[in-house]
Design goal:
The chain is α+β, with helices and mostly antiparallel strands and 577 residues long. Among the domains are: 203 residues, no CATH class; 91 residues, Immunoglobulin-like (Sandwich), CATH 2.60.40; 99 residues, no CATH class. The chain is built from 19 helices and 22 strands.
Length: 577
């Protein structure tokens, strides 16, 4: 085993973290969505393994997708309800019913779906069942149901049986010659996270040997197409670094991260569905991109990963959630869709067959990264709203982010309660995009952090309840377009970690973006009671284009955080100006 990069911080268990504020509301809505019966009926969810129900009338556009990507929907659904269980009162009866159907419909050799030769590359089968491989050990960890563990073992054995054929040089070469290697192969390698989940509850050496063999075969960004499965593969590699200490895994993912940041990132902080054709996004990809960044930060302690994660969360990931709680896809990114110009997000479609189930997994995992623990104390990484009970020598530290007004108007209140311990050391992350104006502990000013510091160290002493108040000074700023070769001298507009957009058509308006205009723009809060920071608005001075006749005299256009789509149904957004 190679020397390891020990993880700088450790995650809390899902049961130790309770989301609050906007994060809690987003989790609540997605749990409600998965409980609805319009499509989420057990017979439909499990039709990809039972073949006893025709799903096509419920989604003609995908025409039978659920019957060819075997165990994809049922595996994703099971993984979603397991993720939501700690935050929604436990495993739902529907989730238990789906699990029973899963147990009854697994083949004796472990696979799901029709019989296939072990010497075949069926990407839909190997990809779909990878989600079941992730779900089953997590279901076992939650419920203790031995049937889930046995089913996961059988499925892992099936992957072990098919892997030699997938890795044959002549087979890999044949796939590459067909120009389909990238799309096919990440469908196979994204089973790594499922093998890691199994190893966590059943640490048999053969699972580690298989996973490391697959991890060494993961292709590069330059040859990958489908961002979701490629990023899921990278996420699985990081899981295996944490389990085995193999240094090559985190080094390789960090390298791929650099390629994505340079060539694959959108101006929203997110990623497209296909790296070679960034006209459409996918909520599943946004989940995996966020988690790759959070895991890289957990392992290395480098704050550029946390900065990238925060921007992706507040902008693109949250934008992919609809008011009804489901997640989906925006069609029309960076391309002409009807009158929509490049740099726009076009028609939104809820992808109930995948994103609405992968989104809950992402939200629950993000909650686990709000606070982490390390040798230098408790790290406060994200200002998303969460409480946590953290054991420390001699007692507990209880944390609660209250009065969440981040990034608008910029106030974060963190309650810190010491029980049985005389002191707690906090490492509070300082985002580089928004300066910290001042910080107080129990009303007393704290020394300012050095310029450019990543964290503000805070020592909390004496038992009882304390309040740490952080006052940030956010403002609207412009950032250059990441792909001027494609979009020219366009810019993205940001307020803290939130990218801004409008549903006005730029072809019909004239406006100017300069330092004076940006400095004068101040947010207007939403007048809805209990509104969240994502619901603020900005007025950008603008008029009608000379060749555009309108019935009113336009004075401005309204800008919204892209994340506002989760609370306002915005059918069209422009995010490059």
């Amino acid at each position: 085993m190679q020397p390891t990069l020990q993880a700088k911080t450790q995650l809390l268990a899902s049961t130790q973290v309770k989301p609050t504020g906007e994060l809690a509301e987003r989790i609540r809505r997605t749990a409600v969505r998965l409980g609805q019966d319009d499509v989420y009926r057990p017979e439909w969810i499990a039709s990809d393994i039972t073949f006893a129900y025709d799903p096509t009338p419920f989604h003609d556009w995908y025409t039978g997708h659920e019957w060819t990507w075997f165990a994809d929907v049922s595996g994703r659904y099971l993984n979603a309800v397991v993720s939501l269980a700690p935050h929604s009162g436990g495993l739902t009866p529907k989730g238990k019913e789906v699990a029973e159907l899963v147990f009854r419909n697994q083949a004796t050799d472990g696979h799901f779906g029709p019989e296939r030769s072990l010497e075949s590359c069926d990407r839909s089968q190997v990809s779909g069942t990878a989600w079941m491989l992730l779900a089953l050990p997590r279901y076992y960890a939650l419920t203790g149901d031995e049937r889930a563990l046995q089913a996961a073992r059988r499925l892992a054995d099936w992957y072990a049986a098919i892997t030699p054929y997938w890795l044959r040089p002549e087979i890999r070469g044949e796939q590459l010659e067909k120009g389909s290697y990238a799309l096919v192969f990440s469908n196979f390698t994204h089973c790594l996270d499922g093998l890691a989940a199994l190893y966590e509850v059943d640490p048999q050496p053969r699972y580690a040997e298989l996973a490391l063999q697959i991890a060494r075969s993961v292709r590069s960004f330059d040859t990958e197409i489908h961002s979701h499965h490629f990023l899921a593969s990278l996420r699985g590699m990081l899981d295996w670094h944490l389990l085995t200490g193999e240094r090559f895994l985190v080094d390789r993912v960090a390298q791929e991260w650099g390629f994505i940041m340079e060539k694959g990132l959108l101006d929203t902080g997110g990623v497209p569905e296909a790296f070679n054709n960034p006209k459409t996004d996918e909520g599943c990809s946004e989940v995996d991109w966020v988690l790759v960044n959070l895991k890289l930060h957990q392992i290395t302690g480098r704050y550029e990963y946390l900065e990238a994660a925060e921007r992706a969360i507040h902008s693109h990931f949250f934008m992919n959630q609809a008011p009804g709680g489901g997640f989906g896809t925006w069609n029309g990114f960076h391309g002409q869709v009807g009158p929509m110009p490049p740099g726009s997000a076009g028609r939104f479609v809820e992808a109930f067959w995948c994103c609405s189930m992968h989104g809950p997994y992402g939200l629950a995992e993000v909650a686990r990264h709000v606070y982490t623990t390390g040798a230098d104390g408790i790290h406060v990484n994200l200002f998303l709203g969460a409480s946590a009970d953290i054991p420390v020598p001699g007692g507990h530290v209880r944390l609660l982010q209250t009065g969440m007004q981040y990034p608008f108007p910029g106030t974060v209140d963190l309650e810190v309660e010491l029980q049985g311990t005389p002191e707690a050391q906090l490492q509070v992350r300082l985002p580089h995009h928004t300066p910290l104006k001042n910080a107080t502990l129990d009303g007393l000013d704290l020394p300012p952090a050095p310029r450019g510091a990543d964290t503000l160290p805070v020592a909390v002493r004496n038992a009882g309840r304390h309040v740490l108040r952080l006052q940030f000074a956010p403002s609207v700023r412009a950032e250059p377009c990441r792909r001027p070769d494609v979009f020219g001298e366009r810019r993205s507009l940001w307020y803290g970690p939130m990218a801004l957009g409008t549903n006005a058509c730029p072809a019909h308006i004239v406006y100017r973006i300069d330092d004076a205009t940006l400095a004068a723009m101040t947010p207007t809060p939403c007048n809805r009671e209990g509104a969240f920071p994502s619901e603020i608005e900005f007025a950008l001075p603008a008029g009608d284009a000379p060749d555009f006749a309108h019935t009113r005299d336009r004075r401005h256009i309204t800008l919204y955080p892209l994340a506002a789509h989760g609370f306002r149904k915005l059918s069209y957004l422009v995010y490059l100006f």
